[in-house]
Amino acid sequence: MSDAPHLVLVDGSGFIFRAFHALPPMSSPDGTPVNAVFGFTNMLARLLREHVGSHLAVIFDAGRKTFRNEIDPRYKANRPEPPEDLIPQFALIREATAAFGVPGIELAGWEADDLIASYAAVMEKEGGRCTIVSSDKDLMQLIGPQVEMLDPIKQKPIREEEVLAKFGVTPGKVVDVQALMGDPTDNVPGVPGIGPKGAAQLVAEYGDLDAILAAAPTMKPSKRQQALIEHAGDARLSLRLVTLVRDVPLPEPVEALAVRAPDPAALFGWLQRMGFHSVIQRMGLTGIPAPVPAAPVSGDGAGDAPGDAATFGPYETITTLDALDRWIEAAGRAGRFALDTETDSLDARVATLVGLSLATAPGKAAYVPLRHEGTLEHPAGRQLDPAQVLDRLKPLLADESVLKIFQNAKYDLLVFAHAGIETIAPIDDTMLLSYAQSAGEHGQGMDELSELHLGHKPISYGEVTGTGRNRIPFAQVPVDRATDYAAEDADVTLRLRDVLLPGLRARKSVAVYEMLERPLVPVLAAMEQIGIKVDGVELRRLSADFAARMGEMEIAIHTLAGRSFNLGSPKQLGEILFDEMSLPGGKRGKTGAWGTDSSVLQELADAGHELPARILEWRQLAKLKSTYADALVEQMDPKTGRVHTSFQMAATTTGRLSSNDPNLQNIPIRTEEGGRIRRAFIAEAGYVLLSADYSQIELRLLADVAQIPQLREAFALGQDIHARTASEVFGIPIEGMDPLIRRRAKAINFGIIYGISAFGLGRQLGIPAGEARRYIDTYFARYPGIREYMERKREEARAQGYVTTPFGRRCYVPGIREKNSARRAYAERQAINAPLQGGAADVIKRAMVRLAHVLPESGLDARMLLQVHDELLFEVREDQADALGTLVKAEMEGAASFAVKLEVETGIGANWAEAH
């Protein structure tokens, strides 16, 4: 088979829709939307570059009407019109195909899938191979020993085993399954009530559709049997609609589809017109004289950087001070350069520089090795003295007229601070440039951004250091390989900045980046350096106490179970709960073991079963012991007695900060154990901790953005918002209100923000779901603006793929168009909550930036230590605590202006628990 012809067929019509939704919006120099065209172009370039076949063609749909509409006029009749931005891209896709010299094939009256099926049949008959570049399930019926598919986005092959995993049957039986289950999208009727699993079971038992329908009268009486009998005609019609025709007259013979090199001049001209400079570089067309330079692609933050036609490498290794001086001079002349560090640790605060790289223009980058160790096989060679290098760089890093560009700048600022360089400004951060306009749309790592925006896959860290047990420290990487890797990172970072910057304006994200994200970098870096003091003695005492309590709980749990078992073993716990105790609701996973995650245990506990409730308590205590009581002692700096969390600036969809090593976001607030852990966070002698917390900020934002007059009035009057809600919903006076009624209103208030269901509210309050539903309905009747707000946000997310905070931050909502109802409902809850949670995150970031400027000028001996959700924690000299409280309260409440006034509560104490 190695010498047999190999035909690659690209499902052009299918790919364009997938690329359109997979890639962020972008436009050509003349303003035409081109995100799907860019994805298609990259895919074609890859196919030609990798020579995956001997023959190649792109197959298109000639029109919406085919012979199937004559069989059933309803077929695909309800499909919506293509999105407005996609319509002009259909013609450009065909232009791209011609520019690459690839045959584009279509035939009136037939679908692209039928043409693909017919070409594949010819290849099978002639003993050749066929690869179909598509992920369309309708084409999976064609897969066989000589035919496979290739997912064009994931670049993963689809063979018989993948079809079996998806449909539960082999490719030859896919049409029978599809005929039974139907397809509402295409108006294929199928048999009502039969889904994928049921269809696969029937096919497995009876063989094919004809056999199933013939056997239906003798099946056990059931709704399924009745449906099969009543809808046998629909099933046979569906089979005709889903079965691909394999003998369509071929518009071009296979011989005419032989792969041929594109005309370089024609391809170059077309790519220039589109502004696809990175494709020009990858196709090796950079030597062709350029016509009048095309403007860079601009749009919603995606596209190619100006001038990025330069190749990635080769790069220079800087081993002399003279060479370093030349690069420093070039960076100064350029007025900007990208900078990246290579270190011996992921903890930037204590990491030592192994080397650094800089880029002054696309394709112009170099690496400065500082502490490579070398081996007998790969000597490190000449390296520069770190102190001399830093001394040379220091003026450039502090030069306000030269922009320093980083990817994840906070890490590099901390590395340089540890090396003795405190002043680096001004900066740009490509991670935050992207995050400010695309939170939740995709990851923000450099490699992912490079592939997405530059069409270039950088050398990975694992490629130069190895992986797993074979990984070596970066200091042992040969200098030539380190140069290739590190200098490329700086080069990519520089190019990304040019690509991403125009997107801020297009996506109306300039304020988010310039006023929140970028100025917050040095603020958080300083907080990480300061850290917070912990009481190691108290933590060890706490760990011992938790261990003793866990031991007592373990004995009680074993008594309830009737025997001893390993509480940390999900398998053993599942056997106890569902095999031995026969509790309801058990579900087995793929391995056959019972599921025992927290949601399963919580349902059982809510139903009144004591053992799962005790297990949940034991797990919570075990988590607190390992995550905090034990881990904080290990993470404490032995010199200072402080722990230094790392704030993650681009990890959430809403703009909220997260933290790790240690994670301080998840310490329980209202439990006794959480309070004891917070008591272990202490102030230095002579100092106290001051906590400043926004009061009910998300409810205040809800009252503002949803324009709820009753809530606005309650906040304006300083009323108890939960008592006011209880009064509105349950029709009772605020004075002398039963605390239980207020608690129910509080649960509704906060639950509504997170899109709580009647079942969820009922479980939380310990009442039937029906009663909880009545509460929610009454709540919406009293506050109709909230229901309108929720529906508005759902619609915005469905239409745009994102919602925005009051400050204009885009929060993308993956899954909002999911067919799976559970995943879609989760995404809808995200859409409702993201503007509120994200708005609160924006407010506290504004406050932090303000305070970072005000504190040094205040004359107070105070430092900002932590940010946890809506709270800021400070350390201040004891006699200045009240003055700091007044200052912080004023700055935080003045950080933003809404129809509902922000309110901040402050507390002072020797430890975090007392202050909070």
TrEMBL record:
GO terms for biological process: DNA-templated DNA replication; double-strand break repair. One of its GO terms (molecular function) is 3'-5' exonuclease activity. Residues 674-880 form the DNA-directed DNA polymerase family A palm domain. Its EC number is 2.7.7.7. The keyword rRNA-binding does not apply. It catalyses: DNA(n) + a 2'-deoxyribonucleoside 5'-triphosphate = DNA(n+1) + diphosphate. Keywords: DNA damage, DNA repair, DNA replication, DNA-binding, DNA-directed DNA polymerase, Exonuclease, Hydrolase, Nuclease, Nucleotidyltransferase, Transferase. InterPro entries: 3'-5'_exonuclease_dom (IPR002562), 5-3_exonucl_a-hlix_arch_N (IPR020046), 5-3_exonuclease (IPR002421), 5-3_exonuclease_C_sf (IPR036279), DNA-dir_DNA_pol_A_CS (IPR019760), DNA-dir_DNA_pol_A_palm_dom (IPR001098), DNA/RNA_pol_sf (IPR043502), DNA_polI_H3TH (IPR020045). It is an enzyme of class 2 (transferase). Residues 4-260 form the 5'-3' exonuclease domain. Residues 315-505 form the 3'-5' exonuclease domain. The keyword rRNA processing does not apply. In addition to polymerase activity, this DNA polymerase exhibits 3'-5' and 5'-3' exonuclease activity. Belongs to the DNA polymerase type-A family. Single-chain monomer with multiple functions. This is DNA polymerase I. It comes from Acidomonas methanolica NBRC 104435. The gene is polA.
